[in-house]
Structures are given as C-alpha cells and as structure tokens.
Amino acid sequence: MSDNRTETTERTDRERSADSSASATETDPLLRIEDVWKSYGDEEVLRGIDLEVDRGDVEVLVGPSGSGKSTMLRCINRLTEVDSGHIYLDDLDVTAADTNPDAVRQQIGMVFQDINLFAHLTARKNVTLGLRKVRGFSKEQARQRADSELERVGLADQADSYPAQLSGGQKQRVGIARALAMDPEVMLFDEPTSALDPELSNEVLEVMQGLVAEGMTMVVVTHEMRFARGGASRITFLAEGEIVERGPPEQLFENPTHERTAQFFESIRHD
Amino acid sequence: MSVTDALGIDASWLRESTDDLGQGLAVIAGVAFWGWLLTRWLYDWTLGRWGIGPGAGENFLSSAPFERIADALEGSVAALGPIRIPVGWLGSLADGAALAIDIAPALATGAWYTIVLTAVSIAIGFCIAVPVAVLRVYGGPFRWLALSYTELIRGTPLLAQLFVLYYGLPLAVWLNDVDVVGRGFVPEYAFWIAIIGFTINGSAYQAEYIRGALESVDEGQLTAARAVGLSKIEGIRHVVLPQTLRYAIPAWTNELVYLIKYSSLAGFITVPELYYRASRIASSTFEYTPIFTLLALVYLGLVLSATNLMTHVERRVAVPGIGQVEGRQQGTGD
Amino acid sequence: MDSVVPVTELLTAILAEQLLFVGEETVGHYFGEDWEFVYRNREYLLWGTVITIVLTLTSILVGFLAGFPAGAIEAYGSGYSQAFVRKFGVLLRGTPILVIMIFTYFVLPIEIVLGAAEFALRSIEFLLGPTPFTVPTDVPEAFLAATIALGLRSAAYQSQIFRGALGSIDEGQMEAARSIGMSRLETIRHVMVPQALRRSVPGFQNEFTIVLKDTSIAFAIGLGELLKRSHDLFTQQTTAVLEVILFISLLYFVLTFGTNRTLDYVSNRFAIPGESS
Asked: What's an example Gene Ontology biological process for this entry (chain C) (predicted)?
C-alpha cells in the first residue's frame, strides 16, 4: 500500500513543480497539525499547536530555544509521540495508533542538526541502505539512485568517501541526499546548519534553496534568517509551546503584530 | 493500547518499589554476611581460644533441627501427591540450611585467608606497580625492562606462575628456615608463596593501567610542572601521579575483584583459603551442589562488597570532570 | 570436533618431524638432562597446547554466541529480559572461574548440557537452514564442562564489551535510520551492530587472552591441557620442574602474543577509513 502511495506522489511531484506558483493561492494542505500537545514530565513543550502546510510550501519555524520547534518536527514523523491531537499527511492520520510509524517515516524525510551519518558506511552506502532495506531496491537500482541523489547535492565525486573523511557541510549534504532518496512528500530540517561553521553552512543552504526551487514541501527549523527571508512561504514564530504569530516572511520581518515577535527578530538581527 | 496506558503509571510505580525492596534486601544481606564473618572471626580469635562457648571453629547453632525437618519433609514426600514437588524443595532447602550451619565455620576461616591474601597482595603489588609504570613511561632507555616485566607476567597464566614459585623455586626451603613461619598466627609457607605470586601478578596488571592513566594525563602538565621549577621526578610525583591514580580507580576496582576471585587458585598450592576448604569438605561428603553453591555465594558476597566499597571510594576522591581507564575487565559491571 | 582431531594429529606429526629434527642426545648434551626431558616429551606437551587452543576457541565461540545477544539485550532490551541478563551476568562475573568450572563438572548433568546444545543447534538450523554440524557426543566430559564454564563466564564479560560498544554509538544514528523508515531491529542489525563489533575489538582482545590463560584452570577437573600435562611431567621427574614450567609459560606467552597481534591486524583491517582506531 505504501508503495502505491509513493508512486502516485512521485507523479504529482512532477505536475506540481510545473505549476506550483499557480496553485499557491488555493489551499491544498499536505500536512495538517491539529491541536497537538506534548509534555515531558511537568514541562509542557507543545501546547495546542494548529498548523497547515500546503503542498509545495516551505514553512520555517523560528523561536527561542526551548520553544518546542524541534519537538514539533519530531512529532511529525513520530520520532516523538504526541500526547494528544492529530497530525495528518494528506488523508493519513500519522498519529493514529494503528498507523505504522515506519511507513510514515518513508514519506517524510528528515535532516538532523547533528547530521547522524552512519559512520561505518560510505556516502553512497549511507544513501543505499534505506533503499535496499526499506524500499527493496536491487543493488544496482539502489546504486544508481544513490549516485543521482548525490549528484543532486553536488557530491557525485565523494560517493566512496566515509563520513570521517568529509567536511561538515559535505556530511550534511549526504544527510539530505539520504532523506531525498526515499522520495519523501515532505522534508523536515531540524537546524541543519547550526552545527556547522558559517562558511560550511552556505553549501547546505544552497542545496536547500535548490529544493525550494524544485517545489519540495519543507518544514524547516533554522536560525538562518537569510534562508527564512529568501526561501520561506510562511514563517511561524513559536514561543513556550504556542504559535505566537504566523505569516509571510515580509510581514514577520517588517511588521510583526506581536511585541514578542518583534523582540525576537530584533535579537536575531544583532547576532 | 489504552490498557497499557492505564497501567503505565502503576507499572512504573511497581518497578520503583521493587527496586527499593531489592535495595533493602541487599543491605540486609550485606549486614548479615559481614555480621556473620566478623562475629565468627572475633569469636575464633578470642573467646573460642579461651575455651568459652562451643570452641574455635565449632558451630554456634546446631544443624540437627534442620536435618530433622529435612528428613521429615523428604519422608513424607511420597504420600503427598500434588504438593509433593514444593515440599520436596523445602526438604532440600532445609537440608542445605543444615549443611550451611555445618560448614559455615570453615567458610568463615577460608574467607579470612582469601581477604588477607587479596588485600596484602594488592597493596604490595601497588607499591611495585607505580615505579614500574613510571619506568615504562618516563624510563627512557630502561623502558624495555618494565615492558618485558609486564608483558611476560600478563602473557602467562597465574596458575603457571604459582607453580613456578611453589614447585620450581626453592622458596619453600628458605621459608621453612624462617622460624616464625607456620607458628601461632603466622601462616604456613604456602601462604607466603601465594602472596608473592599474587603480588607479582597483580603488580604487572596494575602497572599496565597506571601506565594507561599516566599516558592519558596531558603532557603539558609535566611541562608546566618543570616550568615552575620542579624536577622531573618531583613533577611526576606531585602533579602527574595524583591525577593518574584517580583515573585508575575503576581499573583498580576490577583488579581487586580479579584478585578476590583468583585467590581461589591458591588452593592448588595447599593454602587453606575458601576454595580449598570447601573442596576438601565436598570431596569427603560428596555434597557438591550445596557446598559449591554456598561457596559461590560467599565469593559473590566478597566481590559485591568490594565493588560497592570501591564505588564509594571513587565518589569520595573524584575530581569533577576527570575520566577513567579500563582495567582487565574483570569487574562485575554492576 | 571429529574432523579437528585427525588434522591436528597430522600437524603435530609434521611439526615434530620437520621442525624438531634435533636429536634428544644433542639437546641433553648442550642443555642438560632436564631440558632433554622436556624435549623428549615435546609431543605430549604439543598435544596439550592443541587442547588449550581448541578449548580457547570453543569457549570464546560459546561466549560470543551467548554474550552478543546478551549484550544487545542489556543495551536495547527492557523489563524482565534485561533484569535476568543483568542478574545472571553479575552472578557469573562475581564467582571465581574455578568455582564455576567445578560446578559445571560435578553438578551440571551432562544430559542437560547435550540437550541444550542440541536445542541451540536446532534453533540455529531453523533460522539459517541446515548446517553440517551435529552435537558431538564423544567429547570428554571434562572438556565439555570446561568449555561451558569458560564459555558462560566469557559470555558474561563479552556481553559487557558489546553493551559498552553499542552504547558508545551515538543514538542519533538510530534516529536517522528510523527516520528513513527502517525498523528498530533492522537499524540495530545494519547500523549499530557493524559499528559496535569494530569498537569491541580491544575489549575482545583482552577477553581472548584471559580465556586463553584461564584454560589452565581446567587443571582442576583433570583436563589434559597444557598445564595439566606439564604437571604430569614434572611430578614424574621432579628435578625438571622449573624447565617444564618455563617451557609451557613460553608457549602460553607465544599464544597470547600471537593472539594480540592477530586481533590488532583484524582491527586495522576493518577500521573505518578516516577514523582513528
């Protein structure tokens, strides 16, 4: 069943990238988050989050540390389980008890702050592992797919390098290729550049901009305001587990309606 | 799902309380164990010798009632039908209790030998290990001396080393010439040979991980010590070693545990420690299962006490943020 | 075991014929009577060495087969399975190997052991298909008891090595693998275990030499390994005690040294490029 789904989405991917700008005005929610609550012990990390992300949109989550951004991302692919509320991917209730999290995760790619490449595998094998074990690709199919994904992130020449032989930026690009190879409908980025030196961040941000141009649906937690300004369809400002303000980048950067939002962007600007 | 959810809180509470219960039982077991050992030793050295009470090495309690219970239970087993099996177990338990009372004095005396062997060997071994390790790291042209000592000792079995000392060298003759050996409180020569063997063996292992700890202390530390005007020896003594020895405590704990367990090999050269006494009794009574179970329990008690003690020591002397070295991984890991 | 015996027999014969061509008188002439005694009994001692090596290998194997899953349970298991493995481990690690061995020799009924071995073999065959092995029934009881004792004790330590190695691998890799849809078991199998095995080599090296040296404790149950045979010899000719023991100590030393170098090589061979091992 999950294979069927991916096939169809692959087709819609193509169609979508053709006319993504045209359909952007209508609402076509791919990801729907409804009243999600999560707490660790006594600490409430998410307090009733509601959010809809349209197909082809790039949602940037910003907010002070501890505001629940990363937890929100991890709930979407069930690395963290919600306490209550629902998350839908298309018509699939991700959070339902009888939904197999492994099947959900195939459709949702994730890129981590600390990259987490498989240390014992080459760049290429990092990408092929999921294709072989989860998607059941043949060795040759997987290899071809991996090489084309590595090409997509500009690392065709590093396919045989091990993680320890790569720079931080290169590693993170392999991490992106690994997630892309599974043909996800949505890509989640959890502070993908915050573990990297500034000069290495750029190559990762460029790859992400490329995905934006391709029309990939993305949810991005980041402190990179250049990316937020240039790439985001909408920015959501979270504080203390609640959405304070949400809107297009210009609005939040230039005319925030809430005092907290203004303060936050002010403090970022001084960094 | 909802059921496990509902039970989730209860189950975790249950686990916590059983943990508490387990801890409480462990403390009681520990107190009983050491209470028994200390009472026995003190009695045997003092009142027992003076002829008060049942006498040194004799039972405090009589095992007869337990034997009678066991006999009664086992005699009735055939008639009982369905509850035959648990009653049979009770019977063997009572049997075991009777046996435990019988051999307890022997085990307590054996444990004393085991503890003394271990403690003395590890202490002297440590005094040898420190200079050997320092020689190995800072010895320049004499490094190979320390290297061959540790590698040769670590490369051969402890039992073979004990045999060399016991059968191969004329140590027994020399020791027998010493008047005090084997008189009064001073044990027989085999005991001294075992001490020598364990000391040498332990010193090589201790030297090896003190070396590891020495090497893990930043080289800049010694340079800094020299810079403030200390000599090399002084720098090693006052700056490097104090850090090193803290690093080495976990490994040292493992060594202690190792020696407690391997002191059982002294039984092969007739030192009357725990294993020797137990196996003597076993081979005359053929009650292998209960005797060796009891023996294992006593060793377990000693080993777990040692680990707990060392964990305590480690916490007391810890410098915040300083790591540790692996030993020969003979700790209990708990 | 059946096939091991003739092969080793052949090897010993070849070694004795080809390498040790020096006459006994020559040895006696140059090194004295006691060394001649050692030399005369070289084959007897060489056989002891073979038994020592085979015992080490079988024990390490048993230790690995039991210790590796135990380590995984300690690292990833929960509840009763974990508690059981922990308690059993503490029991085995807190008891002298001598006592464990006496236990397996005098207390453990041989039928239970063979039954368990049969069961283990059947389950392996169930998982991996038919294997060419059968449960050996003609192995001396002492050898079996020593293998089980050393094997179980080693399993208790190997489980700690693997547990530590598994724990040392960054949890993030587990999450990354889960995030592309791999199951927990697949992740452990394809991501965690391959790395953990590499990281356990130093601990394994240590464990291997400990087992090798502790085979000498099978002396206690009369197994004719190296130390037992040397004991037989020097009680026969008491003047040669030192010579015999020094000789077998040399053999032990060569074996431990060789083991360490071999595992160093294995470690380098399988090191992950770019990572310092």
From this structure: transmembrane transport
| DSSP category for residue C272 | P
Phi-psi group of C38: left, alpha or beta (phi > 0 → left; psi -120 to 50 → alpha; rest → beta): alpha
- 8 Å CB contact between B161 and B197: yes
- Phi/psi for A162 (5° steps) reads -90, 155
For residue A106, CA distances in Å to B276, B281, C183 come to 63, 66, 11
Contact by Cβ (8 Å): B107, B277: yes
3-state helix, strand, coil in chain A (%, to 5): 45, 25, 30
pLDDT, tens digit (0-9, with 9 covering 90-100), for A190-236 = 999 988 988 889 999 999 999 999 999 999 999 888 898 888 999 99
Dihedral in degrees, nearest 10, Cα atoms B121, B127, B133, B136: -110
Nearest to C245 among B163, B265, B330 (CB): B163
Question: How big is the CA angle at A187 (ends A186 and A188), to the nearest 5 degrees?
Answer: 120
- Joined together, the tokens standing for residue C14 give 């070849």
Tell me whether residues A114 and C175 touch, CB distance under 8 A. no
Q: How many CA atoms lie within 13 A of C194 on its CB side?
A: 14
Question: What structural domains does chain A harbor?
Answer: 29-117+185-269 (3.40.50.300)
Q: How far apart are CA C103 and CA B39, in angstroms?
A: 29
3-class DSSP assignment, residue B123: helix
Helix, strand, coil fractions of chain B, as percent rounded to 5: 80, 0, 20
Those residues with Cβ within 8 angstroms of residue A256's Cβ, 6 or more apart along the chain or in another chain: A237, A245, A262, A265
CA-wise closest residue to B208 among B161, B256, B263, B255: B255
Are C252 and B160 a contacting pair at CB < 8 A?
yes
Q: How far is C173 from chain A (nearest CA, A)?
A: 5
A195 and chain C in contact, CB less than 8 A: no
How high is the ipTM of this complex? Answer: 0.80
pLDDT for position B77: 60
Give residue-wise pLDDT tens across range A51-101. 999 999 999 999 988 888 999 999 998 999 999 999 999 989 999 989 998
Subunits adjacent to chain B (3 or more Cβ pairs under 8 Å): C
Name every chain B residue with its beta carbon within 8 A of the beta carbon of C217.
157, 159, 265
CA distance B53 to B56: 9
User: Can you give the pLDDT at residue C35?
Assistant: 77
Give dist(CA B54, CA B60) in Å, integer: 7
What angle, 0 to 180 degrees and rounded to 10, lies between the N-to-C axes of helices C171-179 and A168-180? Answer: 30
Distance from CA of C12 to the nearest CA of B (A): 23
Structural domain spans, chain C: 57-223
The yes/no answer on whether domain C57-223 falls in CATH 2.40.100.10 is no
Q: Distance between CA atoms of B126 and A230, rounded to whole angstroms?
A: 67
* Mean pLDDT, rounded, of chain A: 87
- Yes or no, beta carbons of C173 and A118 under 8 Å apart: yes
Residue A179 and residue C180 in contact, taking contact as beta carbons nearer than 8 Å? yes
Do residues A31 and A70 touch, judged by C-beta distance below 8 A?
A: no
CA nearest to B301, candidates B20, B24, B35: B35
C241 chain-B contacts, CB cut-off 8 A: 163, 167-168
Q: How much is the mean pLDDT over chain B?
A: 77
How many angstroms separate the CA of residue C20 from the nearest CA in chain A? 46
Q: H-helix or E-strand containing B174?
A: helix B171-177
Q: Are C152 and B320 in contact (CB under 8 A)?
A: no
CA distance B170 to chain C (A): 10
